[in-house]
Amino acid sequence: MSSTPIRVLLVDDHELIRQGLIIFLKTAAGMTVVGEAGDGCEAVELAQRLRPDVVLMDLVMPGMDGIAATRLLKAEHPEVEVLALTSYIDEEKVLDALSAGAAGYVMKDVSPAELVRAIRAAAAGQVYLSPAAAAYLANHVRPRREPEPSPDALTCRELEVLRLLARGLSNQAIAEDLHISPKTVKAHVGTILQKLHLENRTEAAVYALRMHLVQPE
């Protein structure tokens, strides 16, 4: 693990929640809170100035909500990872957050240990879905209106990469597991996204859950 602390920006319209997160994250090894925001506009402005590694983003806020803020933030600063932290779990919010570029989706009743895992996974460029969100996506998301691309379009190696990606492994970890180079993994991920008409690795993880290529934890 890197000795450089993970820089976290907290975004929530409830000050009490922000203060609770600040107190907790101060005790978490390898993390530092660099700022806090009460709405989406402030979050985007602070991210521009503070350049955090991970933004913990509430989704339902007055003014610019977390989904719009995530979309704008990722367009301007794709290197900043966004982790949705919310009380709501429904198809529209989960998919909108992930489509906007969120690296993961975690519920506010998450355990402290799981929140730390989620932040570290996001900082490492991994997909992180809480068990509740993963199970919901697997069991409740309606099929898309257009025909779903079949996993049969993927080679055996691409399926292996997709399954590991959906379990939250980074390119480096996938490379080590399959005994190939990270550059080769990156090429496979690009091909997978192209074949399945997906935008990013988070959508790929959701696809793998929806097609039952992996099981929610």
Question: How is the biggest beta sheet arranged?
Answer: 6 strands, parallel
Query: Cα-atom Rg, whole angstroms?
Result: 17 Å
The largest beta-sheet arranges its strands as: 2-1-3-4-5-6
Low-confidence stretches: none
Structural class: alpha/beta
Q: List SSEs in N-to-C order.
A: EHEHEHEHEHEHHHHH
Total DSSP helices:
10
Please give a structural write-up.
This protein has helices at residues 15-27, 40-50, 66-76, 91-100, 112-123, 131-140, 156-166, 171-178, 182-196, 201-210, and strands at residues 6-11, 31-37, 54-57, 81-86, 104-107, 128-129. It is of the alpha/beta class and 217 residues long. The protein has a six-stranded parallel sheet, with helices on both faces. Helix 2 packs parallel to helix 3 (66-76), helix 7 packs across helix 10 (201-210) and helix 8 (171-178) packs across helix 9. The model has no long low-confidence stretch (mean pLDDT 86).
